[in-house]
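JOB MANIFEST
job_type = single_chain_structure
chain_count = 1
residues = 241
[input]
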Amino acid sequence: MIELVNVTKSYNGATKAVDQLTLTVPKGEIFGFLGPNGAGKTTTIKMVTGVIRPDQGEITINGKNIGTTPLEAKQQFGYVPDSPDQFLRLKGLEYVNFMADMYQVPKEVRGQRIMELARRFDMTSALGDSIQSYSHGMRQKIMIMGVLVHNPEVWILDEPLTGLDPKSSFTLKEMMREHADSGRTVFFSTHVLEVAEKLCDRVAIINKGKILFCGTFKEMQQHFQSDVSLESLFLELTKHE
């Protein structure tokens, strides 16, 4: 579970990137976080993951406060950032093992877990190559593998499907569904509204740092008394903001 209560973040003491945001993402749910560029999505995710601090408000992950008990909170989640261009000098297997070391994954279970992830993402033959030699999609896959190797309760994914080929995209969406159905939490941002419409149990739409809507797609249709697509409702909701 992820909980944000009255979270605010300003830049330069003036522009509020996130403004009094309150949000609850329960267990057993795929939660989509949607908004136009500059809406506050990535700032929110960086605060949830402890990369930056909010000016005010409380953020907890499975009851652990990211501000006061950051190590305990960070043990609860795996975070895929919006850019996979990291640790380029390492080989794929070295990176995933490094992440396993960081989260103290026992040697007797990590090997099987790494090979299962590599199999699902078609990365088995590439594990011995340097990340620098990977395509963008392969880098994205190795970052996802590194995040999932400690089997975190909460997945926090910032545009995770960008650059993935159709098969890998399908695999990740399948794994997200499995994770939520097992009673755990998936929180992800995406620009691909068709994916959000088909995959998410609930969505929140943020613009200019404020939540404009939070609920199921069906609730959104009922609210606007319309049976059009999520894309159409999203454009209608954000055009005047």
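[summary]
The chain has two domains: 1-76+154-166+176-241, 84-152.
The chain has a mean pLDDT of 90.
exit_status = 0
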